[in-house]
């Protein structure tokens, strides 16, 4: 609140300073260089004109431009401009007659008085200038407010979408892992206990780390490693998993559970109980850029491309687009005569 008050006072002070500088530069300094003693009528007229400029500036800036021009009432706005110009001319002529301006100036210059003119060129020119500047300033202010509002709405939308996506990912992961442990409990009770221990550690990560938009990359990679080791507990002898993890010299921030769906997808489609299969997972970090490469043997032909199936993978693509726009590159391909499915993700970290 105090910061907002200081900002408001700063804006008011800036406006006052600009008007003082403008008035001195355009209306006070030039007459002083004429080398003559100017009558009081001259200063009364020009000070009055300055106050008139101030009034039409803020009337146009705060009232007529927002309520007429920005609401597509262009005809009424044009009428207002004409009234402002007409009123400025009328004020200048009334002041000249009331102050006997031409006679006073003629005496100061020691010249014959000029004929009274119907149009005061100085007042007209600066009235147009003031109206133009105030309209422009109001337009810029309006565009900034709209851009700020649009940005806030976009942030709210992104936050809502991310909350929804994470709400989908967590049950999806938990359901799949429990199924794996359930299947393992029939063959090896001790291994299933170990799996439950790893799962409890992973669930603590899910509960306490995924509530934020970003988490530690070190913790995310620990979580990923636990998941890989958990999945390896149920593999057959003909299944091979190769995981290469980076040695980090510096920790970074990353969106939680961003890498998991690609690994889940590899285990889902790359493991066979009867055929030899291989899953390769490589994570490297260099110069604030993370590179993830996941490849797995394709065990069967599917009617739909693998990259188009699965809640987790689709949500991860959406999260990448929301959280890392212009900061990620994701490519998904089938290589080696469609026998290997490969995912490459490059991500610029914060």
Automatic annotation (TrEMBL):
GO terms for molecular function: protein histidine kinase activity. The chain crosses the membrane at residues 12-30, 42-63, 75-95, 121-140. Residues 161-236 form the Signal transduction histidine kinase internal region domain. Keywords: Kinase, Membrane, Transferase, Transmembrane, Transmembrane helix. Pfam families: His_kinase. Its EC number is 2.7.13.3. It comes from the Bacteria. It is an enzyme of class 2 (transferase). PANTHER family: SENSOR HISTIDINE KINASE YPDA. This is Sensor histidine kinase. It comes from Olivibacter oleidegradans.
